Amino acid sequence: MLSERTGYIVWVSDLKAARSLDKYGTVHYMSRKMHYVVMYVDADRAEETSRNIARLPFVRKLERSYRNELKTEYASKVPDKTRSYSI
């Protein structure tokens, strides 16, 4: 069963050293051009893990992702016109 996860964006100064972030959670993406890492951490240990990551010497900035809090179900107020056309 999957546990609840929290996303973090970690801005780094050294991408080679950023490979070691894998031991703190799941690394989803590493941007070579903009020097950031998108990673997911267990939600129950997120605060403790974020403090440990922020202490690393190659980490410049740590941001929490708000993707879990965004509304992803959309309702359209305009009726769907494709159903009224017949072939």
Short description:
The chain is an alpha+beta fold. The protein is built from two helices and four strands; from the N terminus they run E-H-E-E-H-E.
Kindly describe this structure.
- The chain is α+β, with helices and mostly antiparallel strands and 87 residues long.
- The chain has a single domain, classed as Peptidase S8 propeptide/proteinase inhibitor I9 (Alpha-Beta Plaits), CATH 3.30.70.
- The protein is 15% helix and 31% strand.
- It is built from two helices and four strands.
- The protein has a four-stranded antiparallel beta sheet, with helices on one face.
- A hairpin with a 4-residue loop joins strand 2 and strand 3.
- The chain is elongated, with a radius of gyration of 19 Å.
- The termini are far apart.
- The model has no long low-confidence stretch (mean pLDDT 89).
